[in-house]
Amino acid sequence: MPRSVNKVASRARRKKMLKLAKGYWGRRKNVWTIAKNHIEKGLLHAYVGRKLKKREYRSLWIVRINAAARLHGTTYSRLIHALKEKGVVINRKVLAYYATNKPEVFAAIVKQVM
To answer: From CA 25, how far away is CA 73, in angstroms rounded?
Structure first.
């Protein structure tokens, strides 16, 4: 009895991967083994990049909060400590938004907690 292979499923798997390789240059887009390797590497970089993006945004927010806090005579660390002591629950993303786009609101927050 001949060996049974599911040709439909294996072809669909390859087509799905080669569809992801669309836009690649040279043999990367149409040779199965080369395309598979580059797609896997690209997906790995995409996964890592999503994690790095979160890290970079948080550091950007901290820089913006620190710059605005120094305009009001304090530092980032003192401001965050004061917010925690007063029990003000506001995240860094929102604080950075207020620091850059609504300085009067940020000033009111600083005045409230300091």
So the answer is: 55
pLDDT digits (tens, 9 = 90+) for 50-107: 999 999 999 999 999 999 999 999 999 999 999 999 999 999 999 999 999 999 999 9
CA distance 95 to 74: 15
Structural domain range at position 83: 8-113
Do residues 55 and 87 lie in contact, with contact meaning Cβ atoms separated by under 8 Å? no
Contacts of 110 (CB under 8 A, 6+ apart): 69, 72, 74, 79
Q: Within a domain: residue 12?
A: yes
Strand, coil or helix: 8: helix
Domain assignment present for residue 1? The answer is no
Helix, strand and coil percent figures for the chain, each rounded to 5 = 80, 0, 20
Maximum C-alpha span of the chain: 84
